[in-house]
TrEMBL record, chain A:
Coiled coil: none
Domain of life from the UniProt record: Bacteria
Lipid biosynthesis recorded as keyword: no
Pfam families: Aldedh
Organism annotation: Micromonospora phaseoli
GO molecular function: oxidoreductase activity, acting on the aldehyde or oxo group of donors, NAD or NADP as acceptor
Family: Belongs to the aldehyde dehydrogenase family.
Designated name of the protein: Aldehyde dehydrogenase (NAD+)
Cited PANTHER family: ALDEHYDE DEHYDROGENASE-RELATED
Keywords, ordered alphabetically: Oxidoreductase
InterPro entries listed in its UniProt record: Ald_DH/histidinol_DH (IPR016161), Ald_DH_C (IPR016163), Ald_DH_CS_GLU (IPR029510), Ald_DH_N (IPR016162), Aldehyde_DH_dom (IPR015590)
All copies of domain Aldehyde dehydrogenase, residue ranges: 29-476
From TrEMBL, chain B:
Keyword Oxidoreductase found: yes
PANTHER family xref list: ALDEHYDE DEHYDROGENASE-RELATED (PTHR11699)
Keywords: Oxidoreductase
Species assigned in the record: Micromonospora phaseoli
Stated name of the protein: Aldehyde dehydrogenase family protein
C-alpha cells in the first residue's frame, strides 16, 4: 500500500458568518417566534455557525411571501424569462462551485472528492436542465397549457444537501411555482449560501424562501394551509406521517423515501468491475444514500471469490478528513445517525451474522464508522430489512436468477437495484422483474438531471429528474 | 296457453373470474333485485385474487392486453340492449363501448409516449419505461353507472394493473352485468374483481390492505371518508387518486392522467463500451 501525504483542500475559499437568519422575501431576517441551533462539522464537532430556527409564524411569513411572488411576479412571468433566471443561477453555481463544495464537505462530512466531483457538477447540471424546460412546458407531454400549482413546500435531507435542494427547486421554479424550502437541521449551510446566490442572480424576492429548522419547522411548513404542493425526501416513517398530514387536502404530494437496494452479482460478472461497483454502491457518501446497494446478493458459486476481492479492496479505502483530496470515506453526518448505525450493526452481530471491517483507524473527534460487511446474513435479519443509512453491507447468496429476483424484491422498499452480469439477455430479464425505480446494470449510483429517479412501493411516489420530474409541479 | 314465466338472474360478486355469493351469505335489495352484500372478508379475498393475477397480466404483451380490451368492447356492443333494459341510456352504453376501444389502443402506445431514452451526460444507455403499480382498489363513481365504471376500470387495467372495484351501492346491476361482459372477453380471472354492497364495509378494508398498491377514490363523495381512506392508504404509501367533483364530465376526453397515476417509472442504466 502506498503512503499518502496529506492533501487538504483549503478552507479559505469559504467565508462563514457567525450566524444566519431565515431567507424570506429576498432578505435574511431574524426569526419572530423561533429560536436558534448550531450547525457543526461532523468530522471535528467544531461549531460552524448559529442557525435560526423558524417557528410557525416564520413559516407563515415565508409562505405568504411565496404566495405574493407567485401571484405578482413569478406566475405571470414569461417562461423564457424564468429560464434566464435559472440559467443565471446555474452559472453562478458553477462559478462558485469550489466554495460550495468545501462548505458542503464541512457541514456534511462527505469527502471533498465527492462534493467537488459529484454533488456540485450535478447541482449545476440540474439547474441548466430545468432552465431549458421553463419556456417549453407545452411540449412536455402534459397538454398544451400545463399550469403551475402555486406555492411548493419542500423538505430535504442531509445526505446530499445542495443536490437535493437543486432537485426540488429547479423543476418547481421552471414550472412556474414559488417555493419555501426547509433544509435538514444538520446541513443548512449550503442552502443559505444558495439564498445568497439567488440574491446575486437578482431572482425576484419571495420566489425562493429558505426556512431553517428541525422537524417541527418542517411540520409547520407541510401542514400550512397556504401550500399547494408538498415534496419531501427523507425517511419512510416521516414520509408516511406527511402522507397522513396532507390527506383530504388539495396538496399534491411527492415522496422520495428510503431504500434497501439489492446489488446482484452473477457468476459471469467481471469480478474486479463488480467489486468496484459494490464498493461504490455501499460506501459512496458513507452509505448515506437512499438508493445505496446495501444488500449484496452474490451467486453462490462465486461468493468466496467476490468476498475475497471485496475485502482486499475495502482495506484500501481511506477514511478520514473529508477535506483531504485522497479521502474515500468521510464522517458520519451526526451523532444521532452514528448511534443508529451502531444499534443496527449490533443487532446484526447479535442475530448471528458475521461482522468484518478492514483495519481502520478512526479519528478521535467527530463521528466515524469503519466500512463494514456482514456475511451469513439471512432475509430475516434486521440488517437485511432495515435501512441502515451507513457504510454497512449485508451479504446474501443465491443460486438461480429466479431466487435472486425473489430475494431482491423481498422488501417493502423499491428504490433501486443493481445487476452485474456479462449476459445482456439476463440483465434485461432481471431488469424487467426487479420492482425498483432505478436499475443500474454493470454500474451503480449514477445520476443525471435527464434521468427520472424515484421509488416503487414504500420508497415513495413521483419522480425527480427528466421530463417526468416536471409532473410533480404541474396541475396534471 | 299461460304466459311464460321469466328466468330471473341472481346478481353476485365477481372475484377471480368466478361469480361467488358473499361469504357472509348476505344480500341487499336494490334496483328490484337481491344483490350480494360483500363483507370485509370478501374484500380481502378479492385482493388475493387480484394479486394472483398480477404476474400474468402485467407480464402479458401490450399487444395482447390491447386485444383483450378491444374484445371487451366487442362483447359490450353485443349486449347493448341488456344494459338499456337495466336503465342505462343507449348513448351511455355506446360511449362506454367507445371508451374501451380508446383505452385498448393505449396499451402499446403509452410506454412510447410516457417513457423513452434519456440523454445522460456520459457513456450510458438510459431508458425510462412505465410499469403497472400492481393491485389497485377502485371506488367506482355513483353515476353514470356504466360509463363511470368503465372509465375507472379500463385505464387501470390497460397498463397491466389488476383491480378490486367497489361498485356503486345504489346502482350495482350495471357493474355485475359488466362482469358478465368481462368474463366472456378472454380477460384472465382476477384482473377485474367487483364487489357490491356498502362502501363503508369494503373500502376501508381495501384502503388499509397492505397488499394493495394504489387506491382510486373517484367515487367517494363524503370528504371526511375520503380523508380517512387517504390516511389509511398512507400506511404502506399507496398511490392515491383523489375523488372527482360531482359535476365531473365523464363524456370528456379522459387524457392520460388516470393511466399515469397508476404507473411506476423504471429507469435502466447500462454502460456503453467495447
Amino acid at each position: 500500500m502506498f503512503e499518502y501525504a496529506p492533501a487538504p483542500e483549503s478552507r479559505s475559499v469559504v467565508d462563514l458568518k457567525p450566524s444566519y437568519g431565515l431567507f424570506i422575501d429576498g432578505r435574511f431576517v431574524d426569526p419572530t417566534d423561533g429560536g436558534s441551533f448550531k450547525s457543526i462539522n461532523p468530522a471535528s464537532e467544531e461549531v460552524l455557525a448559529e442557525i435560526a430556527e423558524g417557528g410557525p409564524q416564520d413559516v407563515d411569513r415565508a409562505v405568504r411571501a411565496a404566495r405574493k411572488a407567485y401571484e405578482k411576479v413569478w406566475g405571470p412571468m414569461a417562461g423564457r424569462d424564468r429560464a434566464k433566471y435559472l440559467f443565471r443561477i446555474a452559472r453562478i453555481i458553477q462559478e462558485r462551485s469550489r466554495e460550495l463544495a468545501v462548505l458542503e464537505s464541512l457541514d456534511n462530512g462527505k469527502p471533498i472528492r465527492e462534493s467537488r466531483d459529484v454533488d456540485l457538477p450535478l447541482v449545476a447540471a440540474h439547474f441548466f436542465y430545468y432552465a431549458g424546460w421553463a419556456d417549453k412546458l407545452p411540449h412536455a407531454g402534459f397538454g398544451s397549457n400545463p399550469q403551475p400549482l402555486g406555492v411548493a413546500a419542500q423538505v430535504i435531507p442531509w445526505n446530499f444537501p445542495l443536490l437535493m435542494l437543486a432537485w426540488k427547486i429547479a423543476p418547481a421554479l421552471a414550472a412556474g411555482n414559488t417555493v419555501v424550502l426547509k433544509p435538514a437541521e444538520t446541513t443548512p449551510l449550503t442552502a443559505l449560501l444558495f439564498a445568497e446566490i439567488c440574491q446575486q442572480a437578482d431572482l425576484p424576492a419571495g420566489v425562493v424562501n429558505i426556512v431553517t429548522g428541525a422537524g417541527e419547522t418542517g411540520r409547520a411548513l407541510v401542514e400550512h394551509e397556504g401550500v399547494d404542493k408538498v415534496a419531501f425526501t427523507g425517511s419512510t416513517d416521516v414520509g408516511r406521517a406527511i402522507a397522513r398530514a396532507v390527506a383530504g387536502s388539495r396538496k399534491k404530494l411527492t415522496l422520495e423515501l428510503g431504500g434497501k437496494a439489492a446489488n446482484i452479482v452473477f457468476d459471469d460478472a467481471p469480478v474486479d468491475q463488480a467489486v468496484e461497483g459494490i464498493v461504490n454502491g455501499i460506501f459512496f457518501n458513507q452509505g448515506h444514500v437512499c438508493c445505496a446497494g446495501s444488500r449484496l446478493l452474490v451467486q453462490e458459486s462465486v461468493a468466496e471469490q467476490v468476498l475475497e476481492s471485496l475485502k482486499r479492496r475495502m482495506a484500501l479505502l481511506r477514511l478520514g478528513d473529508p477535506l483531504d483530496k485522497n479521502t474515500d470515506i468521510g464522517a458520519i453526518n451526526s451523532a444521532e445517525q452514528l448511534a443508529r448505525i451502531r444499534e443496527l450493526t449490533e443487532a446484526g452481530a447479535a442475530e448471528g451474522a458475521q461482522q468484518w471491517s478492514p483495519p481502520c483507524e478512526l479519528p478521535e473527534r467527530g463521528f466515524w464508522f469503519a466500512p463494514t460487511i456482514f456475511t451469513g446474513v439471512t432475509q430475516a435479519h434486521r440488517i437485511a430489512r432495515d435501512e441502515i443509512f451507513g457504510p454497512v453491507l449485508s451479504v446474501l447468496t443465491f443460486r438461480t436468477p429466479a431466487e435472486a429476483v425473489e430475494k431482491a424484491n423481498n422488501t417493502p422498499y423499491g428504490l433501486s437495484a443493481g445487476i452485474w452480469s456479462d449476459k445482456g439477455s439476463r440483465i434485461l430479464w432481471m431488469a424487467d422483474r426487479l420492482r425498483a425505480g432505478v436499475v443500474w446494470a454493470n454500474t451503480f449510483n449514477k445520476f443525471d438531471p435527464t434521468s427520472p429517479f424515484g421509488g416503487y412501493k414504500e420508497s415513495g411516489y413521483g419522480r425527480e429528474g427528466g421530463r417526468h420530474g416536471l409532473e410533480a409541479y404541474l396541475n396534471v | 296457453m299461460s304466459e311464460r314465466v321469466a328466468v330471473r338472474k341472481t346478481y353476485k360478486l365477481f372475484v377471480g373470474g368466478k361469480f361467488p355469493r358473499s361469504e357472509s351469505g348476505r344480500s341487499y335489495l336494490v334496483q328490484d333485485s337481491n344483490v350480494s352484500l360483500a363483507s370485509r372478508k370478501d374484500a380481502r379475498d378479492a385482493v388475493v385474487a387480484a394479486r394472483a393475477a398480477v404476474k400474468g397480466w402485467a407480464g402479458a404483451t401490450a399487444y395482447n392486453r390491447g386485444q383483450i380490451l378491444y374484445r371487451v368492447a366487442e362483447m359490450l356492443e353485443g349486449r347493448r340492449e341488456q344494459f338499456v333494459a337495466l336503465g342505462v341510456p343507449g348513448d351511455e352504453v355506446d360511449a362506454a363501448t367507445d371508451r374501451w376501444v380508446w383505452y385498448a389502443g393505449w396499451s402499446d402506445k403509452l410506454p412510447q409516449v410516457y417513457g423513452g431514452a434519456n440523454p445522460v451526460a456520459g457513456p450510458y444507455f438510459n431508458l425510462s419505461a412505465p410499469e403497472p403499480t400492481g393491485v389497485v382498489a377502485v371506488v367506482a363513481p355513483e353515476a353514470p353507472a356504466l360509463l363511470g365504471l368503465v372509465s375507472v376500470i379500463a385505464p387501470a387495467i390497460v397498463t397491466g394493473n389488476t383491480v378490486v372495484v367497489a361498485a356503486s351501492p345504489a346502482a350495482p346491476l350495471a357493474a355485475v352485468t359488466l362482469a358478465e361482459v368481462l368474463a366472456t372477453s378472454d380477460l384472465p380471472g382476477g384482473v377485474v374483481n367487483i364487489l357490491t354492497g356498502r362502501l363503508s364495509e369494503t373500502v376501508p378494508t381495501l384502503a388499509a390492505h397492505m397488499d394493495v398498491n394504489a387506491v382510486d377514490l373517484t367515487g367517494v363523495t363524503d370528504p371526511e371518508l375520503a380523508a380517512d381512506l387517504e390516511v389509511k392508504a398512507a400506511e404502506n404509501l399507496k398511490r392515491v387518486l383523489r375523488p372527482v367533483p360531482p359535476d365531473h364530465d365523464w363524456s370528456a376526453d379522459p387524457g392520460l392522467r388516470r393511466m399515469t397515476a397508476l404507473l411506476e417509472t423504471k429507469t435502466v442504466w447500462h454502460p456503453k463500451g467495447v
